[in-house]
Amino acid sequence: MIDDVGLVRRLKALACTAPLHDLDARKGMLDWVEAEPYQMAEIALHTIDQVTIAMDFDTGARHRQVVDRVVPFVAAQAPDRHPDEHLRVARWVLDSLINVGTVDRGFRRVYGEVDAGGAYTRRAFDFKLLVELAAADGEVYLRATDEAINVLVGALDTDVESAQVAAEVKLENLIIRGRLAEARLAAEQARYRTVQFGETLRIRLEATRRDVRAVDWEQDLPELIGSALTHIESRFKAESAILKNITVARDDAEEPHRKRRAADLVDIVGDCIRRHTQLQARLLSAGSVFRAEQDRQLFAGPPQRAAVDLFGQLLLPVLELPVTRAVAPLEEYFHGSAGPATPPVLTLSSLVSLLLRPPVERDDLVGELPQPDLIPAEDADRYSDEQWRLADELLDLPDVARDLSGLLAEAGRLDPGLPRLVALRAMHAYSPELAAAIRRGQPSLLIAVPTGRRLDPALTGGIGGDELVLTTAGLGDQS
Q1: Is 342 contained in some domain?
Q2: Is 140 helix (H, G, I), strand (E, B) or coil?
Q3: Average pLDDT of 199-214?
């Protein structure tokens, strides 16, 4: 037997799809929903699709944005269920793809490999489907990994450029032959490959920002940038021609269904052209990124020691130990984290000297205090005593109910500044604190109730809002 690279590639491809199948296997264990109508693997594929489409070079998809786009697909599977259930199912699938609840938020699958000597060896394949990354603006975005994009297009570790060229040729042939339904699938796969090409460059630039020595900028990356620019130039020509053919097919189509499919293809190919334009700009600026990071890291200080992962390196291992063996590492950690403490008394002579030292006499007073220069406080009351008296008279309504608009008009005739005070008093009378008024011993309480109408600012001195009916309610004998 010989080492079969193709078999290993197919095993990894199956491993990438395993988390999607696990969703359908685990849905029966959910206690908050009867999940039989929901096809969780289909929802997961749709979720990865939405994240991939929303990905940009610097940012990705927001959690809420992805959930909002997935909820209609979930609702279509169970239209008789409550919208809150649809929302919760979409969030559960998204969290499962991120693998929330694990330390590294990754998946691991074990596969077998036969080496050149015929020995069968088990190996672990670690991967992620959706990752959370923090952008420069502080927002946390979702991005689809290469493994997730390969799940969408049905391949693994495929050469990006050759796959993109093949997808574009296939798309062009399908459009010429008028098979728009299959052309849409080919166009979506071409867009996924475009996103994956940009993700490859982004990962290399991120590694450069961490350590310029981790990326081969002498030969590997310059060749990648050169071939990518050549690839983009040819893709621009091909996609422009494809876009022209699609536009002709859309304009010449007479059937509404066919015209709609052609219009969708126009949008998808246009999005591919936009992504290629953005990728070209990033490729042209990659050299300046390398030079800037080289200068920054060359004059940076010595690397700092990494902090201890208390959860993964201390807590989890200690919890697996018996108590007798766990005490020693915990004591070592707390002794190291607390640091040295200097005792207040180092020797016996220091203790005797400290005890025999006479107390320091302190003055009872700290000395003469300067007299501060106080500025007279300004009168903060906006309304005069006369205005308050007039407002009390207007709002004393023991046996009658009056509209706020009438009270404002009457207040305006008495004093131009009085309507605003009456309006403020009426606003406080809406939903008054009855218990507080009883505790204070008030004999009555002003109450305001909305009528559903609106105030006319032209008649109320510029005061708008809801029309209210006001009256004074007696609180009775509180003795």
Answers
A1: no
A2: strand
A3: 83
b/e per residue 430-444 (b: at least 16 CB within 10 A): eeeeeeebeeeeeee
What is the DSSP code (8-state) at residue 129? S
166 and 127, same structural domain?
no
Question: What phi-psi label fits residue 365: left (phi over 0), alpha (psi between -120 and 50 degrees) or beta?
Answer: beta
411: which residues sit within 8 A by CB, 6+ positions away?
390, 391, 394, 418, 419, 421, 422
Whether pTM exceeds 0.90: no
| Angstrom distance (rounded) from CA 4 to CA 12 | 13
Task: Look up residue 395 and give its amino acid.
Answer: L
112/206 same-domain check: no
Q: Cβ distance 139 to 59 under 8 Å?
A: yes
The single-letter DSSP state of residue 315 is I
Neighbouring-strand partners of residue 132: 142
Is 276:232 a contact under the CB 8 Å cutoff? yes
> Is the same domain home to 135 and 5?
yes
Q: For the chain, what is the domain count?
A: 3
Query: What DSSP line would sit under 198-243, residue for residue?
Result: HHHHHHHHHHHHH-GGGS-TTTHHHHHHHHHHHHHHHHHHHHHHHH
| pLDDT-derived band at 75, boundaries 50, 70, 90 | very high
User: Is 272 in the same domain as 230?
Assistant: yes
Nearest 5°: the CA angle 236, 241, 244 is 125
d(CA 73, CA 55): 20
State both tokens at 431.
């939903």
For 131-181, what is each residue's pLDDT tens digit? Answer: 888 776 678 889 888 788 777 655 544 555 555 555 555 556 556 656 666
Judged against a pLDDT cut of 60, whether residue 463 lies above it is answered with: yes
d(CA 175, CA 191): 16
| Stronger pLDDT, 81 or 163, i.e. the higher one | 81
Mean pLDDT of 83-94: 94
- By CB atoms closer than 10 A (0-12, 13-18, 19+), residue 407 is buried
In whole angstroms, give the CA distance from residue 294 to residue 300: 10
